[in-house]
Design goal:
Blueprint lengths: L1 H30 L2 H5 L3 E5 L9 H22 L8 E7 L13 H26 L4 E8 L12 H4 L9 E2 H5 L7 E5 L2 H15 L11 E5 L27 E7 L4 H14 L13 E7 L8 H23 L21 E7 L2 E7 L13 E5 L4 H13 L6 E4 L12 H13 L3
Parallel strand pairs: 1-2, 1-5, 2-3, 3-4, 5-6, 7-8, 7-11, 8-10, 11-12
Antiparallel strand pairs: 9-10
Helix pairs in contact: 3-4, 4-8, 8-9
């Protein structure tokens, strides 16, 4: 009997060793696979739902630790002489968490999203400035409800009805997109573990014809998430619109794909391609018009066209990364997706109801959208110029455009208190015309 009692811990130890052995073998199998050895570091970080309210200090407290850890790891895992590391960061769409006090409409959703994205991009930008290393990063809005359980019926049978091109992607679509991630990072904590486990289950439940995921999973330390009590319950959907009210959304003056351009592109795509509650398309089609301009040092047209062509391709890759989750979304030649590509102009059909157009030296004063409604997104400090532009459009008999001021990349506001942030938000809202 004594011998049998002693054998139980020994047997448990052997089981643990065998399990650890197979886990180590699996890691080495992934790391030594040809796909991994030939590719640069390509990570996905699954963030838990953002804090409420989502002001910059709250975003910093909640997401600085996991963001810094994931950035350091993709830099560390990237081998010399390879392309720059890539980090995609999926963050649940704030509107979907049912923690709103204001009325839910497209404008409130837009401000929630752009405030969250601007804070997150600023946080990553400040981190990369400190480490002085380049990482190709982008934020993906995730259509995820924290209290919803993604059961089998909501996996592959019904998920085929979800749109695969959207400004807020459904969790089953993200899990089944077959993007060639080398690492998937989960955030420690209850909400981070919950979203990761559901993502993992959905990934492993792919149809038998699909390639099984071969990425390596790691956990990174979570931050402090504070949620204030709201007047609606968690997981409650308020009466959100089924489509954007704008048929045209315009941004202008892009010279390069920097952090501010990424914030503008992300928020403009959200406003133009507003995510629908169900699988049905938007009520009307929309067009995102992206105006690029010649740099100061470019004196001849040929040089300007060549530079704009390169920028259009960069923007195309970025938009594909945040909007397109079809199973063949890893396009090696995005230029082939552009219709009538001539350097100065081009068009990209993301979905039947969503078109992206590129225009070199776009003249906002003379841009005529007909009788359709249009929105113009501008950076801070350019609001008065936009109002003057609208006045001149009115004098010419061209319909006005609604002007939205978008937050920019900054490191200062990450340390501001909630009262300062609320005053800033109110000021920005009052400048919408």
């Amino acid at each position: 009997m004594d011998g049998m009692k002693l054998s139980k811990p020994l047997a448990a130890s052997n089981c643990w060793l065998i399990k650890s052995y197979f886990q180590v073998c699996r890691v080495f199998f992934v790391l030594l696979s040809p796909e991994y050895l030939m590719s640069s570091s390509y990570g996905l970080l699954l963030l838990p739902p953002p804090p409420y309210p989502g002001n910059p200090p709250a975003i910093r407290a909640a997401f600085k630790p996991p963001l810094e850890a994931a950035l350091k790891k993709v830099i560390q895992y990237n081998r010399p002489h390879q392309d720059e590391p890539i980090l995609e960061i999926a963050v649940p769409w704030p509107q979907n968490q049912g923690l709103r006090i204001e009325l839910s409409d497209y404008e409130a959703s837009f401000y929630d999203v752009q405030r969250t994205l601007a804070s997150l991009y600023s946080l990553v930008g400040a981190t990369l400035e400190r480490v002085e290393t380049y990482v190709n990063f982008r934020f993906i809005l995730l259509d995820y409800q924290r209290e919803y359980n993604y059961e089998f019926s909501d996996r592959w049978e019904s998920s085929y009805g979800y749109p695969r091109t959207s400004s807020a992607v459904k969790l089953p679509i993200l899990a089944g997109s077959r993007r060639p991630w080398t690492h998937v990072f989960a955030v420690e904590g209850e909400q981070g573990e919950r979203i990761f486990q559901q993502f993992l289950t959905l990934s492993n439940e792919r149809p038998f014809t699909a390639t099984k995921p071969r990425w390596h999973t790691e956990r990174v330390r979570g931050g402090l998430v504070l949620q204030k009590r709201a007047s609606v319950g968690i997981g409650t959907r308020l009466n959100e619109p089924s489509s954007t009210p704008f048929t045209h959304v315009v941004i202008n003056g892009l010279e390069e794909l920097d952090i501010n351009s990424k914030i503008l592109l992300s928020t403009a795509a959200f406003l133009a391609f507003y995510p629908s509650e169900n699988s049905s398309p938007q009520l009307s089609s929309s067009t995102l018009i992206i105006g690029t301009k010649k740099r100061f040092e470019e004196r001849d047209l040929d040089e300007a066209v060549e530079t704009s062509e390169s920028l259009h391709l960069e923007i195309t890759k970025f938009l594909l990364g945040i909007l397109d989750f079809t199973t063949n979304s890893e396009r090696n030649n995005p230029k082939s997706e552009l219709q009538s590509f001539s350097g100065s102009q081009g068009a990209l059909q993301f979905a039947p109801d969503f078109l992206v157009k590129f225009v070199l030296d776009l003249d906002m004063e003379d841009m005529d959208c007909g009788s359709n409604t249009a929105a113009f997104l501008t950076r801070p400090g350019l609001h008065n110029a936009a109002i003057s532009m609208n006045k001149r459009r009115q004098d010419k008999g061209i319909p006005e455009v609604k002007v939205f001021e978008v937050f920019e990349f900054t490191t200062d506001e990450l340390d501001t208190d909630e009262d300062t942030e609320q005053a800033r938000l109110s000021s920005s809202r009052s400048q919408v015309r």
